[in-house]
Amino acid sequence: MTFAHDIIIRPIVTESSMDMLQDKKYVFEVKKDANKIQIANAIESIFGVKVEKVNTMRMQGKMKRMGAHMGRRASWKKAIVKLTPASKTIEFFDGMA
């Protein structure tokens, strides 16, 4: 059994993700094998909000150099969570926008 805090790894705070806050869309890094239903349930239980829609995408790790050696950063999964219009906002992001 996975817990909600195991599915949601961290919020993604970038310029484009901050622009989405006005549409009640929030961006999170999530566990790679989590599906949309698990992500929605985890967001609802952690933050006490109502989720309307979840979009997910697999982010490929970037190639990086260390001198003559090449390596790859780890791949990860990103989720864009849209809340219902009647739902309250996520308080974690309130001071950032």
The helical percent reads 10-25%
Main beta-sheet annotation:
4 strands, antiparallel
Query: Average pLDDT value?
Result: 93
β-strand amount: 35-45%
Q: What's the Cα radius of gyration? A: 15 Å
Number of strands: 6
Overall structural class, as computed from helix and strand content, comes to alpha+beta
CATH architecture: 2-Layer Sandwich
Give the uncertain stretches in residue-range form.
none
Q: Secondary-structure element sequence?
A: HEHEHEEEE
The CATH topology label is Alpha-Beta Plaits
Q: Terminal Cα separation, in Å?
A: 35 Å
Highest-level CATH class: Alpha Beta
Strand order of the biggest β-sheet: 1-2-6-3
What is the overall silhouette? globular
Helical stretch tally:
3
Subunit organisation of the chains: single chain
CATH-assigned homologous superfamily: RRM (RNA recognition motif) domain
Task: Give a written overview of the molecule.
The protein is an alpha+beta fold and 97 residues long. It has three helices and six strands. It has helices spanning 4-7, 15-19, 36-47; strands at residues 8-11, 25-30, 51-59, 63-66, 69-72, 76-83. The strands form two sheets. The protein has a four-stranded antiparallel β-sheet with strand order 1-2-6-3. A two-stranded antiparallel sheet has the order 4-5. It starts with a helix and ends in a 14-residue tail after the last strand.
